[in-house]
Amino acid sequence: MKIKLTSYLFVFLYIIAMLRPIAPFVEYAINYDYIAKVLCINKDNPELNCNGKCQLMEKLKQQEEDDFNSLRIHMEEYPIGFVRVLKLENEPVTTSIQKNKFHYKVDYSYLFYQSVFHPPSV
């Protein structure tokens, strides 16, 4: 029972995470009248037929920036115990070619017989 409940919880959280990108569209559809009449930037220009889409685009852009910024991790902000973040310089990588140290000798030979072997008959 506990495992089933936990799995339902994770499925629910996964669905919420997948629906997050369409949240501004849902909010726009629910508050369409308020956004079109009050929040719209282009309400002075009715020939543009914006109807609050400018606000929708701003929210989409803001959500995209928030998603991008949330993915960034600065190691200085997350120290791991006594380990310090090292700044490594790009040094040229030198590779050496190692020769094989074994010798393979072909001692195989194939003898082709024309006759086919038949077991003795009783």
Describe the structure.
By secondary structure, this protein is mainly alpha-helical. The protein has a domain at 2-70. It is 43% helix and 0% strand. The chain has 4 helices and no strands. The protein has helices at 2-19, 23-30, 32-39, 53-71. The longest helix has 19 residues, at 53-71. It starts with a helix and ends in a 51-residue tail after the last helix. The model has no long low-confidence stretch (mean pLDDT 76).
Q: Which term fits the overall shape?
A: elongated
Straight-line N-to-C gap: 71 Å
The secondary-structure element order is HHHH
Q: Tell me the number of helical segments per DSSP (H or I, 4 or more residues long).
A: 4
Percent of sequence in beta strands: under 5%
Largest sheet: none
* Secondary structure: helix percent: 40-55%
Number of strands: 0
Mean pLDDT: 76
Class based on secondary structure composition and strand pairing: mainly alpha
Low-confidence stretches: none
Radius of gyration: 35 Å
Task: Provide a concise account of the structure shown.
The protein is mainly alpha-helical and 122 residues long. The protein has helices at 2-19, 23-30, 32-39, 53-71. Helices cover 43% and strands 0% of the residues.
Descriptors for this entry?
122 residues; mainly alpha; 0% strand
Helix-strand layout with pairing:
Layout: H1 2-19, H2 23-30, H3 32-39, H4 53-71
